[in-house]
Specification:
alpha/beta; 11 helices; eight-stranded parallel β-sheet; 42% helix
Length: 249
């Protein structure tokens, strides 16, 4: 049976004081259950502090990005081994903001996926379509292309220890969200694609939803058979909201 994963992506938000208070609230109210995994992805500079605060807790630490290189003259980059050294257990790759704002192509994302995996960090592969692509009816082909880039480079076995996050770009930070049925359809299509290569991996991989999940819609979304959790943006910056989603899971 697949566990549920609720992961908070803090993006470019937070300060030492606000993060300490946020984590204090999350730790104090986290539900006691073995069926739920919880993680937070702070900005790079706060990862050591967050890892230290959470060292004896059930909340894991993730990164928002990773360098494609192990080391070298790449000013401003952070390698997978550095993230591992500071306790990162998850790492986001291919977030729609990285694809759109920083021009990361599918092949670039696939490289980053592998460097995380090789360092023992679970990659969270973010995939999803823009509003224009949804209106054109090409959602499944876009998502399949983004996943196929990883399979082509590294094989289906790469997903044996990975997470996929479906994030419809038109539902991120807009207050809009896919209906539970729309999200379920894409999650089921992702699982069906993986099953054409390896049914066992398809059946066990966690596929989480990343399109403005919040306390008001979490229960309906998480009730869908192929939605295994959420990648939470704005709601992860408020302990009460984040905990409400965890309870819904």
């Amino acid at each position: 049976m697949r566990k549920t994963l609720i992961a908070g992506n803090w993006k470019l938000n937070g300060s030492g004081e606000s993060i300490t208070e946020l984590l204090k609230g999350i730790v104090a109210g986290l539900p006691e259950t073995e069926s739920l995994s919880v993680a937070v992805c702070p900005p790079y500079i706060y990862i050591p502090m967050v890892a230290d605060i959470l060292s004896d807790q059930r909340v894991m630490v993730g990164s928002q990005n990773v360098a494609a290189h192990a080391k070298g003259a790449y000013t401003g980059e952070i390698s997978a081994s550095m993230l591992s050294e500071f306790g990162c257990q998850y790492g986001l790759v291919g977030h729609s903001e990285r694809r759109s704002l920083y021009n990361e192509a599918d092949a670039d994302v696939a490289v980053k996926f592998k460097v995380l995996s090789d360092s023992g960090i679970i990659p969270v592969l973010c995939v999803g379509e823009t509003l224009e692509e949804r209106d054109q009816g090409v959602t499944e082909s876009v998502v399949s292309r983004q996943i196929q880039a990883v399979i082509d480079q590294h094989g289906i076995a790469a997903f044996a220890a990975a997470v996929i996050a479906y994030e419809p770009v038109w539902a991120i930070g807009t207050g809009r969200t896919a209906t539970p049925e729309q999200a379920q359809d894409v999650h089921a299509a992702i699982r069906a694609l993986l099953a054409t290569y390896d049914k066992a991996i398809a059946d066990t991989v966690q596929i989480v939803y990343g399109g403005s999940m919040n306390p008001g819609n979490a229960a309906e979304l998480l009730a869908m058979s192929d939605i295994d959790g959420g990648l939470i943006g704005g709601a992860s910056l408020n302990a009460d909201d984040f905990l409400a989603i965890c309870r819904a899971a």
